[in-house]
Design goal:
The complex is a heterodimer of chains A (119) and B (122). Chain A is mainly β and 119 residues long. Helix content of chain A is 0%, strand content 51%. Chain B contains no helices and 11 strands. In chain B, β5 and β6 form a beta hairpin. The chains are: A mainly beta (119), B mainly beta (122). The interface between A and B is medium-sized, with 25 and 31 residues.
Chain lengths: 119, 122
């Protein structure tokens, strides 16, 4: 079974600064997806960024980028130019490649990192 | 495009009572998921439907939890009887991909989440 570990329960950053959230995972699979989700107090899970394991290039989405180290099974999220609206719970999640039957699409989440952005 | 709808948003019950949650996925999405998120933890999958069939319910406490997805659209998750440890947020999500060869326009088969239902069991 796959596991996802987020070792930082809480992080804080000054507005406009850069912060990195850590995530490690364990799997025996070679093809999979990794995600970072943001969950504000409204509870709605919002996809921030995704990474396909077969891609060596790190994914980027505007101010968000990842550092994907497949051999080390590490997947960190970097938030640049932090904004007050970035304050939320951030979850790292793993998903198998899936099969033709549609199973194994479930997401396995870490425990989350609470990010505070200070003005 | 409307998102995933869930109701109610909040529910408070006493232990041993019954409760039901409703989810309406994004139109056309073949796969529907129910996750349980206990305070301080990440969501955990309870059950996954593909159309109206169950794909994975390995972590569903079947002695008290049940779920159905009528006609492959809306879904209901029920707890009977509730225990204190069932206090959590229940998240519904849906994704487009169905059987092999369908949904190729959605290679990532991204899951879209609803706002969740916060259940408190007293």
């Amino acid at each position: 079974a796959q596991t996802v570990t987020q070792s930082q329960p809480e992080m804080s950053v000054q507005e406009a600064e850069t912060v990195t959230l850590s995530c490690t995972y364990d799997t025996s699979e070679s093809d999979y997806y990794l995600f970072w989700y943001k969950q504000p107090p409204s509870r709605q899970m919002i996809l921030v960024i995704r990474q396909e394991a077969y891609k060596q290039q790190n994914a980027t989405e505007n101010r968000f980028s990842v550092n994907f180290q497949k051999a080390a099974k590490s997947f960190s999220l970097k938030i640049s130019d932090s904004q007050l609206g970035d304050a939320a719970m951030y979850f790292c999640a793993y998903r198998s490649e899936g099969d033709s039957g549609g199973s194994n699409y479930k997401l396995t989440f870490g425990k989350g990192t609470l990010l505070t952005v200070n003005p | 495009e409307a998102g995933v709808a869930q109701s109610p948003r909040y529910k408070i019950i006493e232990k041993r009572q019954s409760v039901a949650f409703w989810c309406n996925p994004i139109s056309g999405h073949a796969t529907l998921y129910w996750y349980q998120q206990i305070l301080g933890q990440g969501p955990k999958l309870l059950i996954q439907f593909q159309n109206n069939g169950v794909v994975d319910d390995s972590q569903l406490p079947k002695d008290r939890f049940s779920a159905e997805r009528l006609k492959g659209v809306d879904s209901t998750l029920k707890i009977q009887p509730a225990k204190l440890e069932d206090s959590a947020v229940y998240l519904c999500a849906s994704s487009p991909r169905g059987l092999a060869g369908v949904g190729v326009a959605f290679p990532y088969n991204e899951q879209f989440f609803g706002p969740g239902t916060r259940l408190t069991v007293l």
